[in-house]
Amino acid sequence: MRLQQIAARTDVGQMRDHNEDAHLVLPEIGVLAVADGMGGLAHGEIASSTAVSTVKAAMSSLEQVVSAVDEDPSSATRIQLAQVLEFLSNLGSQRIQQALGPGVSGTTLVIATVSGGHLMVCNTGDSRAYLYRAGTLRPLTEDHTVAAAQLRAGVISQAEHDASPYQHMLYQALGTQGEVDPDLFSLPVAAGDIVLVCSDGLTGPVSEARIASILERKGTSLDDATDALIEAANEGGGPDNITVVLARVLDGETADDVELVRETLEQSRCLHDLGDRDHRTLSLYLDYLDLDAGSVIDATVGVHVMLAGAAIRDGEAVGPGAIFGLRSLADDERSVPEVQVIEPARVAVLTPENFKRLQLRRPAVAVRVLHGLYSELSRALP
Question: Which residues on neighbouring strands pair with residue 183, listed in sequence order?
């Protein structure tokens, strides 16, 4: 899958005398990136340009991994791509420190790739990625600022966050520490989706509602939409450098079909207590299988959530939302009932191996997943 419609623009804004943002567009391999040099530190423009040049220098390696996801969009290849993006983020951080000295300067970095019907996002800092689908703008990243962390922890209210002196204080950024721990998200995309990657020069003065309205109005032309977003940020005072990158997904399933699958997964009884961020994190570790009528689901190899279609289990017909294989994560070797597909079906699978990977990277998310799975298992026991 390649991105054939892309628009990108950067602007110094109204209050700065130079631009410390940098961006990268590699349409032939579906890679987008935005970096925002930290204004409170020296040489922010060097930090941001070093971050994106590190990604660009790895283009040939990235192309191999992205192509592998295009050919086989399984969790194995997507996890490999995520690991490459994490490695490049840390390599960029090291190169900034080598060029400027440890802690002298820093930058955000958000990378987005589209391949194999999935959008992958790797984020460090408070630059952002969004997905615009069928009139709805969906935030995909969370800011790595002190105030945002306090808000997520429930320590402060939204109003207190918006007035906080720590609203722009990053607790991690490339170049300011030994290693960064970027957020890694993956989710299926649909034909017509628009990916937005931007610096906080856009999201500071322009609300998400305004961004959505501009994309709805100007979305047929990404160049016009990019110009309108830059103009809106400057009309809002332009307090910072503004960088906007937009890309449209042309191929894939319909938005209605992708949304139905997403909603079914998120509302399944064992996962409905997870937050949006948890679901985006979990999605990286899921395999999505399309099964023909007559296929047998092997519930011993992982937890299966039926997303579409119908099957027979224990002589009973079950449909979307049905869950099989809960015992697989508990190393329960008791026999499980056979599940036979009677209508073409799609299922999401979490294998024990991928659950262990999730535990290592995001243990808090793994605990919430396990709690939901064991709660469901307890309901299923006689």
Answer: 123
Amino acid at 70: D
CA nearest 350: which of 72, 50, 27, 79? 79
pLDDT tens-digit profile of 227-248? 999 999 999 999 999 999 999 9
Give me the residues paired with residue 21 across strands: 36
pLDDT at res. 335 = 58
Q: Among candidates 116, 27, 106, which has minimal Cα distance to 71?
A: 116
Helices (H), the chain: 44-57, 59-71, 75-100, 146-152, 158-162, 200-203, 208-218, 222-235, 255-267, 276-283, 352-361, 363-380
CA dist 118 and 66 (Å) reads: 11
Contact 309, 345 (CB under 8 A): yes
Is 193 in contact with 131 (CB distance < 8 Å)? yes
CATH architecture of the domain with range 255-380: Sandwich (2.60)
Q: Domain ranges in the chain?
A: 5-248, 255-380
Residue 311 sits at the vertex; the CA angle it makes with 306 and 315, to the nearest 5 degrees, is 130
CB atoms within 10 A of CB 367: 12
Instruction: Classify residue 274 as left (phi > 0), alpha (psi -120 to 50) or beta.
Output: beta
What mean pLDDT value characterizes the chain? Answer: 92
CA dihedral 164, 183, 16, 150 (to 10 degrees): 0
> Residue 382: pLDDT above 60?
no
Three-state SS for 348? strand
The span from the CA of 249 to the CA of 193, in Å, is 5
CATH number for the segment(s) 5-248 = 3.60.40.10
User: Quick count: other Cβ atoms within 10 Å of Cβ 85?
Assistant: 24
Question: Would you state the pLDDT for residue 374?
Answer: 84
Q: Which of 275, 276, 298 is nearest to 287 (CA)?
A: 298
CA distance 62 to 83: 11
Number of Cα atoms under 13 Å in the Cβ half of residue 79: 15
Q: Which helix (H) or strand (E) holds 197?
A: strand 194-198
Which residue shows structure tokens 């499980």? 336
Instruction: Decide if 130 contacts 211 (C-beta within 8 A).
Output: yes
pLDDT the model gives residue 2: 65
